[in-house]
């Protein structure tokens, strides 16, 4: 059986992370999200905190620093002054994501994984969304914060995710054409979403490839 990868993009509060965990249990594969940064840190030798600081947070000063000069897409060596520039951190992240896709079946949440693996036939790219108000309500319950603060958090996290995705891919993060399957958790339960994703994976790769 060949490896398969499910990438999951999601609106904050839509339930994407919960659906990924449920898929992991159904398919008996690993989920990579925050733990991906540990793998990237080990691979690059860069302190994990450097990745966390740059993770999905862009500032104009960083955009200027990264965009100066030509860049060929290869990881920059440690002696370079730009070694820990956000673009280089992203390239190490992409290297690890491709390595995971080569070595085992898995689920990867966010991290532009859908774009990084866009040319691989064994990757199912999924986006999980929902109405902003229902996302805020879920986030309020999940984080134990007032609904008013949850609305702000949802808007801010989605904005940052969109900026992060656009900067590194030059594409729109929530554009349906970026994905193989888009699901609305206002219309379907998490369990139904898991069923749809597994069914789509079987259609794309063949029943025999999914256990």
Number of domains: 1
Chain-averaged pLDDT: 80
Q: Considering DSSP H and I runs of 4 or more, what fraction of the residues is helical?
A: 40-55%
> How much strand content do the residues show?
5-15%
* DSSP strand tally: 5
Rg estimate, integer Å: 17 Å
For the record, the CATH architecture stands as 3-Layer(aba) Sandwich
Amino-to-carboxy terminus distance:
9 Å
Instruction: Summarize the helix and strand pattern as letters.
Output: EHEHHHHEHEHHEH
Poorly predicted regions: 56-73, 75-84
Number of helices: 9
Largest sheet: 5 strands, parallel
Which shape, going by the Cα principal axes?
A: globular
Q: Given the helix and strand composition, which structural class is it?
A: alpha/beta
**What is the level 1 CATH name?**
Alpha Beta
